[in-house]
Amino acid sequence: MSPKIYAAISGAGHYAPEKVLTNADLERMVDTSDEWIRTRTGIRERRIAAEGECTSDMGAEAARRALANAGLAAEDVEAVYVATCTPDMVFPSTACLIQAAIGAGRAYGYDLSAACSGFLMALDAAAAAIESGRIRTALVIGAEKLSTVTDWTSRDTCVLFGDGAGAVVLTASDRPGIRSNYLGVDGNQADILYIPAGGCKRPPSEETIRQHQHFIHMAGRETFKIAVNTMLGAAQEAIRRAGLQESDIDWMIFHQANWRIIDAVAKRLGDGSADRAIMNLDRYGNTSAASIPLALSEAVADGRIQSGHKVLMVAFGGGLTWGGTVVEWI
Ligand code: UT7
Predict the structure, then answer these.
(1) What structural domains and CATH numbers belong to the chain?
(2) So what's the pLDDT on residue 98?
(3) Are strands 108-112 and 79-83 parallel, antiparallel or unpaired?
C-alpha cells in the first residue's frame, strides 16, 4: 500500500496596500469617533487599495511572497484557489488573473465565494486535492478590495472594513500539516450580512445605485451574537477532529472582525485567557477572506508561529458561513 499523502503549509505571504485610512480620517467623513471605533471594534486604521489596484494585484503579490517563503517557483504550482467576495470581474475568475500575473503556467484555478470564511473553505478544497494524490502543490489565496463595496456614507459599516491579501503554499507532505477541517453554512440567515444588488436577482440599475444596494449591509448586533457562539462551536469541533485538547493549541487565529468577538471566544477556550489569540485588526480592520491568511503570514514572519506549533484558525461570515481548521506548522 502506498504511504498516505498529507497536506501541509510550506510558506505564507501577505500584501497590504500602502494607503492608511485612520479613525481620525473617518471622523471627518461620517458621524463617528476614534473612541467609539476603538472600543467597539478594536480597529485603529485600515488599508485602502490605490485606484486601479485590484484584488488580483494584491492576491498576486501575496502569492509571490508565499512562494518565495516556501522556496518554490510559480511553475511548481498546480492549482490556484482564490477566496474572495470582491473579484476583479464576475468572470474570468480572479484565480485566472493571478495565475497569469505570477506565471503559474501549469496551474488550474478558480474562485471560491464564502465571504469571510472563504480562505478556510479554499484551504479545505486544496488539501483534499493534495491528499487525493491528484496534485502536489497549490496556492490558497484570500484577497479582498472591500473598499469598493463599502458604503462610505454609512457609519454602521464604513468604519469596519479594509483591503488586503494573504496567501499560503500548500504542498504534499508525509506528515499531517492540515490536522482538521470543519466547515458549515446556514443560508437561512443570508440577509443579515450581504450585498443586495449586482447579481442576477437585482442587476445594476440607477435605482439600485441610488439605494446603495451595491454595498455591504449588515445587521451588526445580530451578526455579533451568532458569531460568538458559532465560532466557539467551530473552534471546539476543529480541535476535537484534530484529536487534540484546547490546551494543545499554541496560537489561535480568528477572523478579524471585532476584538470583542475574538476576546469572548478565545477566553472560553482552554485557560480562560486571550493571550494565544493573534490579532491585527487594529491595523487592517476586517478584510473578509484575507483576514486569516494575513494574520497567519504576519505571525510566521515575526517568529511567533514556529515549527511544531499547532495553530487553530476560525472563520465566520456572510452566508452565513463558518469554519475551523487546526494546522500543525511543519
Ligand atoms: O465579518 C463577518 C462577521 N462580522 C461580524 O462579526 C461583525 C459583528 N458585529 C459587530 O462587530 C458589531 O455589532 C458592530 C461593530 C458592527 C457594532 O457594534 P455594536 O456594539 O453591536 O453597536 P450597535 O450596532 O448596537 O450600535 C450601538 C450604537 C447605536 O446608537 P444607539 O442606537 O444606541 O443610539 C449606533 O447607531 O452605536 C451607534 N453606532 C455608531 N456610533 C458611532 C453605530 N456605528 C457607529 C459608529 N460611530 N461608527
Answers:
(1) 6-175 (3.40.47.10), 180-328 (3.40.47.10)
(2) 98
(3) parallel
- Quote the ligand 1 centre to 156 CA distance (angstroms): 6
Average pLDDT over residues 270-276: 85
Q: From the CA of 260, give the closest atom in ligand 1.
A: 11
CB atoms closer than 10 angstroms to residue 210: 8
pLDDT tens digits along 208-256 = 999 999 999 999 999 999 999 999 999 999 999 999 999 999 999 999 9
The Cα–Cα gap between 12 and 314 comes to 17
* Concatenated DSSP letters of 264-316: HHHHTSTTS--TTB---HHHH-B-GGGHHHHHHHHHHHTTSS-TT-EEEEEEE
* 3-state class (DSSP) for residue 27: helix
Q: What pTM did the predictor assign?
A: 0.97
What does 152-221 look like in DSSP terms, one character per residue? Answer: TT-HHHHTTB-EEEEEEEEEEESS-SEEEEEEEE-GGGGGGEE--SSSSSS---HHHHHTTTTS-EE-HH
Distance 35 CA to ligand 1 centre (A): 13
Question: What residue type is assigned to position 67 of the chain?
Answer: L
- Separation between Cα atoms, residue 85 and residue 99, nearest integer Å: 18
Ligand 1 atom showing the smallest separation from residue 220 Cα? 13
Q: Which of 224, 265, 279 to mutate to test the pocket of ligand 1 (most atoms within 8 A of CB)?
A: 224
